[in-house]
Amino acid sequence: MKRCMFIDDSSVIRRVAKRILGGSDMLVIEAANGLDAVEMCTADMPDIIIVDGALPDMQAEDVIRRVRAMESPIQPQILISLVEVDVASIMRAKRAGAQGYLLKPFTRPQLLERFRTLRFAA
């Protein structure tokens, strides 16, 4: 079973993502801030990580760098989640180790399609 972590201070975004993605082949775990997410990754690295571009406690790039610096047999696919296309934020996230971005709010078809492309890239 694949594990996906949604890091977002909005419980609504996390709940919607969990409802859309959660099922027999995906376990969705949640973190409300960057520090909690880093601790959770240290204990058990997920396969996919979606990082909010506007976390209350850390820059998304710092979360990505910390995750990438961890020694783990799992090298997660990481996306930054943004409310609008911001090329500078996307480039900073990619330099830190992200594979791409996801726009929010997202619809069920948008999120499922983005995850299909992540599976093909794995």
From TrEMBL:
Gene3D superfamilies for this protein: 3.40.50.2300
InterPro entries: Bact_response_regulator, CheY-like_superfamily, Sig_transdc_resp-reg_receiver
PROSITE patterns according to UniProt: RESPONSE_REGULATORY
UniProt KW Ribosomal protein keyword: no
Protein name: Two-component system, chemotaxis family, response regulator CheY
Species annotation: Mesorhizobium escarrei
UniProt domain Response regulatory: residue ranges: 3-119
Alphabetically ordered keywords of this record: Phosphoprotein, Transcription, Transcription regulation
Domain of life: Bacteria
A Pfam family hit: Response_reg
Keyword NADP: no
Residue ranges the record marks as coiled coil: none
Modification type 4-aspartylphosphate: residues: 52
Organism placement in taxonomy: Bacteria, Pseudomonadati, Pseudomonadota, Alphaproteobacteria, Hyphomicrobiales
